[in-house]
Amino acid sequence: MSAVSDAPSSPESGPPARLPVRAGLGRFLVLGAVFVCAACGLVYELELVALASYLAGDSVTQASVVLSVMVFAMGVGSLLAKRLRCRAAVGFGAVEAVLALVGGCSAMALYACFAWGGHSRSALVGFSFAIGVLIGAEVPLLMTLIQRVRRQDAGGAVADLFAADYVGALVGGLAFPFLLLPAFGQLTGALVTGAVNAVAGGALVLWLFRRDLSVRARWTLIVANGLVLAALAAGAVLTPSFERAARQAVYGPGVRVALHTGEQEIVLVGGGTSGRPLSLFLGGRLRVSGRDEVRYHEALIHPAMAAGPHGRVLVLGGGDGLAAREILRYAGVRSVTVVERDAEVVRLARRDPGLSALNGGAYRDPRVRAVTADAFDWLRRSMAYDVVVCDLPAPELTPSTKYYSQEFYGLAERVLAPGGRLVVHAGPLRPDPRAFWTVDATMRSVGLRTTPYVIGAPRPGRGSPHDWGFVLAARSPVGLRLAPHRPRPRSLTEEGLRAARRTAERGREGGLPPSTLMRPRYGE
């Protein structure tokens, strides 16, 4: 590939640019701007996917919406940019200023739509389209600018441009989870990215191509970039107040703890001296409600513990310590291993006054050991247990489907001691009975004999199901019963368990295929 700096100009690229530096350095600076802008563009995409998945769940759907809309919009932006090639420098400067503002504020605007409007899908599509149009407009303008710096054959120019673009996308993709999220969080991370975008685009045009700009265009870009940076800085300063107001709109007053971990957002509402029942939200979804958690955890734990030996118990999930609280009521328990993916949940369960009071100080018992690990990975290297409890998010959430797969239950069956039992929170029977019965079919597909039962949730509320569905399983048939003497549950009776099983069996759906890692059946 040979540079032809003295080649005649074309109407598409215009006359050679009058640069303050040599053509070689100018070309390098343009490619550097391509690199930075590509990194920022991918961060905007990942921000939208991550925040939409957190707000609405179903990460596969959210990623598909963002990426498909954005790629389509990039094509639209490329066509629209054809009209700006005659004034490529000022056009690129204007595009980058708008992109920095829209992309930088997109996460905050999307969160605001969810918090105060209750819906974020239309905002997600709108921001995906707008950002895609602006990213798509970059390439034709940059192609024109790089050709004006130093003419070369079109194939070579495209190769250089896209090489810088793809490397920038790699850096942006890695910077998002490993640098921006841990250091700044989602909202401030997007604002910081917008500032970098504005500085890179503005500096390229206002310095390298300044001789191409009229005085009016130069001052317009300076003022526009200054206002964009001021708006982004103001957003960063106001982010803590904005997040507090948004959390109050979402969770109501009384938010005591709000943490962003590497896994999720953790919010504790009420409890302690607040006078309100404690509620624990993980990733925006209600996981524990002090109003009715006893009913849920007793239904999850007591039938499995009463059905046979229970010296060694494994709890997958349940980092809040509430399942462990019920397990420790049995005198024959020698050890309880709690496998929780997010260590911060366990730390709160140990130290937060409201949550530790609710779990009865379960983690102070020497028989309880907490392990930070993925439940799937832990089962690969586990010992034998008398009881395995799966207290995990319901299978309708895409990241959770692997814990309801044939492969997962195959591993769980392997770690059951002779006479051991596995009990699974299988999600609500209503409004999606097919998902519940798919869990049952998947457990049976690995040779387990199952006993499904459904307990009504007395106070459905925000994030609460209409009922709780469970499946108790073992290698041989196992019945639902309670311990003949102590401990006696506060909310369960033998008759209640029989009714819970009848409720489940009345709605049984047969002939469902098992769910696998490669073919998840939930949400079909």
From TrEMBL:
Residues at the active site: 391 (proton acceptor)
Membrane topology field: Multi-pass membrane protein
Pfam name, any one: Spermine_synth
Binding-site residues for S-methyl-5'-thioadenosine, renumbered to this chain: 264, 340, 374-375, 399
GO cellular component: plasma membrane
Keyword Cell membrane: yes
Binding, spermidine: 297, 320
Molecular functions per Gene Ontology: spermidine synthase activity; thermospermine synthase activity
NCBIfam families: PRK03612.1 (NF002956)
Family, similarity comment: Belongs to the spermidine/spermine synthase family.
Family annotation (HAMAP family): Spermidine_synth
Protein name, UniProt field: Polyamine aminopropyltransferase
Organism of this sequence: Streptomyces violaceusniger
Encoding gene (name): speE2
